[in-house]
């Protein structure tokens, strides 16, 4: 059977874009299927300051555009669609979207992760009306207003730093007594005069009329609750992987795809890279590295299928 593509990549975040350009440069016929914009979660980052080679901070959206252009320049094709399922029949993968079936010899899943929800009363109701999961998108609406940031990881710290450029009334709450975030980032937040950090604090409810007006916070040391005026609530409490379209793939206990060090899953010919993969450190640079490894190993696998491997 002939296939449409050598490799189908699912997701155009940094892992997918890097895998795409590496595979295309290895002279493979590659398509990246993405449901939104290229760049994944990086498009939301205002200032990326730890990306190697960038001696000045770079905007995540701009860098994403450049990576997409670079991949396209090497011959990667892009399709905008939502993947519904991935099925392997013999040595052929069938990737199903709403109105089309794509076939290939190998698949690289680089579908990333989506933000987790707090589950507090009022979160759903005020989503888009004061509750947000993206500081760069929604922060400017709350310039000089009182904003709450929830979370204790790198994302919460990064986003709190961004919001602190817009207002001197940023309150940050974390359920534990210290941050999970990288130490430099955590220190910067703690030293920022526009951010008031409260540890051991949980959000119990988000209240308002048409828009957010207040939050109920609980100190989990002494179980006291207080209601406090607030104009916006920014939630950054981690993410969960986008794997709903996969079947029979080995996942770890938190739902991320388990792979070998060649990025290969338990299904031969199906690779995973980036935030969807079980990895100890989720970073754009890590995603790029994993994308490159996945493309290289998928390329070797296709050579084997064709009886063209270099022994
Ligand atoms: P994360 O590292 O998993 O941190 C999530 C934070 O939210 C944790 O502090 C966690 O608390 C808290 N949390 C989780 N569920 C909660 C709940 N129901 N209620 C209240 N708090 C809750 O997630 P992330 O910050 O989104 O980062 C994800 C990955 O991306 C990480 O690997 C990170 O290094 C990377 N990242 C890196 C950068 C950067 O390098 N600049 C920026 C953004 C993200 P506990 O600590 O108690 O578990």
Description of the molecule:
The chain has 311 residues and is an alpha/beta fold. The chain has six helices and 17 strands. The chain has helices at 14-25, 60-73, 135-138, 154-163, 183-191, 284-305; strands spanning 5-10, 30-34, 77-80, 83-89, 92-97, 101-109, 113-115, 131-132, 147-150, 170-173, 195-198, 201-208, 212-219, 224-229, 232-235, 239-241, 270-272. The strands form four sheets. Strands 1, 2, 3, 4, 5, 6 and 17 form a seven-stranded mixed β-sheet that branches. Strands 8-15-9-10-11 form a five-stranded parallel β-sheet, covered by helices on one side. Strands 12-13-14 form a three-stranded antiparallel β-sheet, with no helix packed on it. The protein is elongated. NADP nicotinamide-adenine-dinucleotide phosphate is lined by residues 50, 118, 151-156, 158, 175-176, 180, 236-239, 281-283.
């Amino acid at each position: 059977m002939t296939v449409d593509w050598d490799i189908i990549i699912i997701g155009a975040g940094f892992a997918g874009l890097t895998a795409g350009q590496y595979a295309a440069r290895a002279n493979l016929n590659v398509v990246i299927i993405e449901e939104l914009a290229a760049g994944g979660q990086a498009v939301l980052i205002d200032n990326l300051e730890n990306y190697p080679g960038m001696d000045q901070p770079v905007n995540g959206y701009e860098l994403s555009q450049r990576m997409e252009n670079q991949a396209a320049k090497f011959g990667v094709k892009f399709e905008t669609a939502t993947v519904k399922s991935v099925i392997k029949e013999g040595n052929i993968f069938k990737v199903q979207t709403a109105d089309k079936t794509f076939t290939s010899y190998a698949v690289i899943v680089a579908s990333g992760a989506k933000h987790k929800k707090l589950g507090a009363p009022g979160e759903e109701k005020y989503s888009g009306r004061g509750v947000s999961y993206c500081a760069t998108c929604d922060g400017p609406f709350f310039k000089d207003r009182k904003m709450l940031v929830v979370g204790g990881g790198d994302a919460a710290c990064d986003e709190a730093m961004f919001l602190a450029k817009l207002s001197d009334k940023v309150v940050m709450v974390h359920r534990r007594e210290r941050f999970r975030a990288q130490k430099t980032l955590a220190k910067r937040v703690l030293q920022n005069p526009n951010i008031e950090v409260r540890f051991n604090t949980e959000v119990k409810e988000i209240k308002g009329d048409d828009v957010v007006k207040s939050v109920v916070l609980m100190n989990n040391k002494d179980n006291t609750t207080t209601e406090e005026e607030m104009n916006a609530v920014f939630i950054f409490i981690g993410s969960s992987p986008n794997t709903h379209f996969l079947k029979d793939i080995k996942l770890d206990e938190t739902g991320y795809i388990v792979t070998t060090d060649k990025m290969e899953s338990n299904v031969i010919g199906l690779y995973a890279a980036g935030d969807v993969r079980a990895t100890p450190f989720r970073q754009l640079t890590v995603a790029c590295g994993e994308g490159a490894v996945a493309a290289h190993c998928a390329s070797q696998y296709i050579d084997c299928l064709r009886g063209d491997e270099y022994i």
